[in-house]
Every structure is written in C-alpha cells, then in structure tokens.
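Task 17 of the worksheet. Students: predict the tertiary structure of the chain below and write it out as structure tokens. Keep your answer in the requested format; marks are given for formatting as well as content.
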Amino acid sequence: MAHDSTSLQAQSPLAQAQDSADKARRAVDQALSYSSRRMIEQADNALDKAWRAAAQAEGSETWQAVEETKERLQTAEMDLDRARADKMKE
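Model answer:
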C-alpha cells in the first residue's frame, strides 16, 4: 500500500500548535452550542493540550506565529468561561 510521503512527515511544533488550537476552537464552539458538562470538559482538555503544544513551539518557530496562536487560545478560553457560566445558570 503506497503512502503519500508528505503524510508521513512529522509536523513542525508550530503546525502542531496551530492544529491543536483549531481543534480546541471547535471543541469550545461545541461547548457554547450544547453547554453540557461533557462538552465543557472536552473543550477544557483540548485547550490544555493546545497550550502545551504552543509552549513547545516557543523558540523553535517564528515568535509572531506562536503569539497569534496563543491569542487564539486566550479567546477560546474566554469563550469557554462563557459556556461554563451559561451551564451554571441552568
């Protein structure tokens, strides 16, 4: 079975951080839409993973791209806090 050589290449730390930030954003959006305890927990876990990936990208990539990724994560965290507050109102 043939594999595309690019699919076998490891992602850079920045690409991993950006991918994790994208996944965290989707998880937060789901938590905002459904605000179940499970969705909030999944979003929280995704954000933790994305922050770790961003920390690993620091110093190994362009600082501006890493900072933009961190800003996206900060925005996602604020939105997740809003989902938590909405859940507490129920």
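Marker's comment: The CA atoms of residues 31 and 62 lie 31 Å apart. The chain is about 80% helix and 0% strand.
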